[in-house]
Design goal:
alpha/beta, Rossmann fold, 7 strands, globular
Length: 261
């Protein structure tokens, strides 16, 4: 898919690696200038350099999205460099580091996941939305998860955060449509970086990994590029009448879901 984004400036959180990096590349390949906002300084600088060396336009902005002051500074740095933000992609997030039943979930883990995955998205949107309102337009895509659409066992913090992302997206779509701002969610399924189900060789699936894929109708993991392509569609003119949507990109995970995961 090719679209004309040459007049756009995108801010992508978590943009230095994984899904975020693939999203950044798709946006740049279609003409957008991009602010890569990421907590990892080295990865952030490397991603920006790769894009600029290849003829694109990008800046790296180091930021922990769970810190509102850092978010405000990152948005201001982007505005100082580019003068506008027309696309926002909230990809920064972490998984549930503990797989335990809810009453055994530590307060530390609960707070950390909620702070990054949900509060971080709110902080970034709160900082960028006034800019888009003044511009009378913009596109926001929040990266949730199938865990925001169906409950996954032993991941209560992550499930709660991602469900919050989905519904907060809908709230923003309702509130900001009058300003020409579209807000949507992409919900990835099991992706290529989920290595917990591989054996020690990093290639062969464990029995649990094979069982995981049994409930995915397409029978495979997803690729970062497939999430990026969905985001590209949602920020493109082709999606001009799409807002408040939660788009699963999951190989059919949601409709094939087994409760034991």
């Amino acid at each position: 898919m090719q679209v004309d984004l040459k007049n756009d400036v995108a801010l992508v959180t978590g943009g230095a690696r994984g899904i975020g990096r693939a999203i950044v590349q798709d946006l740049v390949d279609n003409g957008a200038a991009v602010a890569i906002v990421d907590v990892h300084e080295e990865n952030c600088a490397r991603a920006a350099k790769e894009i600029n060396d290849a003829g694109g336009t990008a800046i790296g902005v180091v930021c922990d999205v769970s810190d509102n002051d850092q978010v405000v500074a990152a948005v201001q740095k982007t505005m100082n460099r580019f003068g506008k933000i027309t696309i926002l992609v909230n990809d920064a997030g972490i998984g549930n580091p503990q797989r335990v039943i809810t009453h055994e979930q530590s307060l530390e883990t609960w707070r950390k996941v909620i702070d990054i995955d949900l509060n971080g998205m709110f902080y970034v949107c709160k900082a960028v939305l006034p800019i888009m309102v003044d511009q009378k337009g913009g596109r926001i895509v929040n990266i949730a998860s199938v865990a925001g659409l169906v409950p996954l066992r032993l991941q209560s913090a992550y499930d709660a955060a991602k469900a919050g992302v989905v519904n907060f997206t809908r709230i923003m779509a309702v509130e900001y449509g009058q300003y020409g701002i579209r807000v949507n969610t992409v919900a990835p399924g099991t992706m290529e970086n989920v290595t917990v189900f591989y054996g020690s060789d990093g290639k062969t699936f464990t029995p649990e990994g094979k069982r995981l894929l049994e409930h995915v109708p397409l029978g495979r993991y997803g690729y970062f590029s497939e999430i990026a392509h969905a985001v590209l569609f949602l920020v493109s003119p082709d999606a001009s009448y799409v807002t408040g949507a939660a788009l699963p990109v999951d190989g059919g995970w949601v409709c094939g879901y087994h409760r034991d995961f």
